[in-house]
Amino acid sequence: MKKIYLLAVTLFAAFTVQAQDVVKFAPLDNSPVDISYFPNKAVKFKKTDTPNPVIKVTYARPSVKGRTIFGDVVKFGEIWRVGANENTEIKFYKDVTIGGKKVAAGYYSLFAIPEKDKWTIIINKELDLWGGYAYDEKKDVVRVSVPVKNVSDVIEALSIAFTTKDSVANLVIGWDKTTVELPITVK
């Protein structure tokens, strides 16, 4: 009887362990999440001579995949989350100025209203949204109109990077054959 009991306990334990080992991980997302920092190498190298981050943008990177993006996938004149999936978030590690308006350090959402020749870039207080479906204009911190720059080569995956001139960090958004730049003054 002890042998049967021991066998039953051993089989039960083996089955339980095997059942716990089976984890179904989600497949790779079609629009993987990425992060851009200003200064660009602020967190990639831990050296004392590398500056601390001032701005961090977390966003999902959809691809063109042969589609017409602006005016079709992303409608002109409509709010867009600047990416895919959850809305894009931007963190300012210290106070900045955007469009002449002071923006306090903290986390915000980044939205845009694309048009053919200009975009309205929006910094908004609301966080943790899926896309722009629950966007609330009353929570806007700042809105800035920026010109569209057309490029000749397709930028396959939505990309966000920073360029610098003096105390201005230009947040550059590029996708398909379009780029825009949002000047952010850093003190």
UniProtKB/TrEMBL annotation:
This is DUF2911 family protein. Residues 1-19 form the signal peptide. It holds the Pfam family DUF2911. InterPro entries: DUF2911. Keywords: Signal. It comes from Flavobacterium ginsengiterrae.
